[in-house]
Amino acid sequence: MSDNGNETGAFLAGFVVGGLVGAAVALILAPQSGEESRRLMREKAYELRDRAEDIAEDARKRAEMMAEDARKRAGEFGEDMQQRAEAMGERGKQMYEEQRSRLKDALEEGKKAAARKRVELMGGESEATPQSEG
After folding, report:
1. Disulfide-capable partner of 44 in 2, 23, 35, 133 (CB 3.0 to 4.6 Å)?
2. Checking phi first, is residue 25 left (phi over 0); if not, alpha (psi -120 to 50) or beta?
3. Which range of residues forms the domain containing residue 68?
4. pLDDT single digits (tens) 55-80
5. Is residue 19, in this structure, part of any structural domain at all?
């Protein structure tokens, strides 16, 4: 975008300078009287001013459109990032719960295996399933 702004500014400057140089050359080479030359110079100056205002207005409108487009794209990008972050957060919660459940199951199985081994080491005194602790 900054390159486009520089190009527009350079164009405007070149346009105005070119117009002034052209008007000055026309006055110098023109076979009119001084009064006629001054009148022509005023008319050309007004024309150049009007053109410059039109070009500046057009450049301003284009800049506003580009700025609005940039704001719109930034908003869409922000919404997309927010949705992705929320989805990742939900996936993280889901993975946490899955791992928590697996760990809980593994601990329970470990307790049962330890209780069975304890019974086995004590000589197999009881074949009944021991109560889990905790």
Report:
1. 23
2. alpha
3. 2-92
4. 889 889 999 999 999 999 988 988 99
5. yes
